[in-house]
Amino acid sequence: MKTAIIIPTFKRPAFLERVLTSLSQCAYPPGVEIHVVENGPVSGAEEVCRNHSVEGRVRYLYSPIAGRSKAINHAVERSDADFFIFFDDDIQVPEDMVAAYVSAAARYGRGHFFGGPLIPDAESECPPHLVPYLPRSAIGWSHGEKEVEIAATDFEFFFGANWAVFKADLEKTGLFSEELGVTSEKISPVGEEGELQQRLIAGGAKAIYLPGAVIHHFVPRECYTVGWVWHRNFRLGVTDWIMTYGPMKARRRIFGIPAWILKSAAKQKAKVLASHLFGFSAATKAQIQMRDAYLSGVVHGARVAHDRARPTSVT
């Protein structure tokens, strides 16, 4: 079975060097390659790949359009591998990581996809009042110590930085949605791996949790600030507009935005103001701010969709 590890990277050669150094310490079954996909501006990834070839396994690819989903699709479409492992450029892995995925693929076969836990490698401690609003990639996640199939009704998603799937199942289900995922824009929607994995589930594939497939994920101190968390929740709102609210029919719209969303967003802005004026606790203020962030993202997503749908004038 030919296996390809796919690592998208964007303007972070130091991170890429670290993950390739980590992968150089792994034990490799036969037929494993590493495809590094630099996307957007050329920023030194090719040189890093030459200097950290992991015994000749590393193949450098380039995708000119900045976008994580586009970069991964670019690599998948150009690979003849049977099985793909997806990592990010800001992780470190144990020496048996690759073998854990390849072994599971051999035991379960097609119709299954795989993921494992994440341990945050944080630069600083997170304030407790922000923890409920952080993504799992910033606080860590585990499904336990046993290898197990996660029931479809209980499955949410495996981390985009740590999961694997057969090419045949991707060909059946489709690749990453390129309207989702990190791009060079600060307000790009998130959730590309979850959306794809839910399509896999809907198509009958089964999710297998591998406790040994654990990654250490770097979390910079900025991720534990109100500004970063607000921005993250804003992007969740943009995502939910695309995935949930946008396709829904609304009785009344104002500039393309459902009236009930505008009303909810306006009420939340008033609550934010009150939280500042009346000295609410840090926990209460965070709850109000993050709900405001989410609703602001929904409104933004609706406005962008409305503007794109408007006919352009011809001069």
Radius of gyration: 21 Å
CATH homologous superfamily classification of the largest domain: Spore Coat Polysaccharide Biosynthesis Protein SpsA, Chain A
On the 0-100 scale, what is the average pLDDT?
92
Give the overall form: globular
Kindly name the structural category. Answer: alpha/beta
Summary tags:
Spore Coat Polysaccharide Biosynthesis Protein SpsA, Chain A, 315 residues, single chain, globular, 10 helices, 2 domains, alpha/beta
How is this fold's topology laid out?
Layout: E1 3-9, H1 13-23, E2 32-39, H2 45-51, E3 58-63, H3 68-77, E4 83-87, E5 91-92, H4 97-108, E6 112-115, E7 118-122, H5 136-139, E8 148-150, E9 162-166, H6 167-173, H7 192-202, E10 206-209, E11 215-219, H8 226-245, E12 253-254, E13 257-258, H9 259-277, H10 282-309
Parallel strand pairs: 1-2, 1-4, 2-3, 6-10, 7-11
Antiparallel strand pairs: 4-9, 5-11, 6-9, 8-10, 12-13
Helix pairs in contact: 8-10, 9-10
What's the short story on this structure?
The chain is of the alpha/beta class. Helix content is 41%, strand content 18%. It has two domains: 220 residues, Alpha-Beta Complex (Spore Coat Polysaccharide Biosynthesis Protein SpsA, Chain A), CATH 3.90.550; 85 residues.
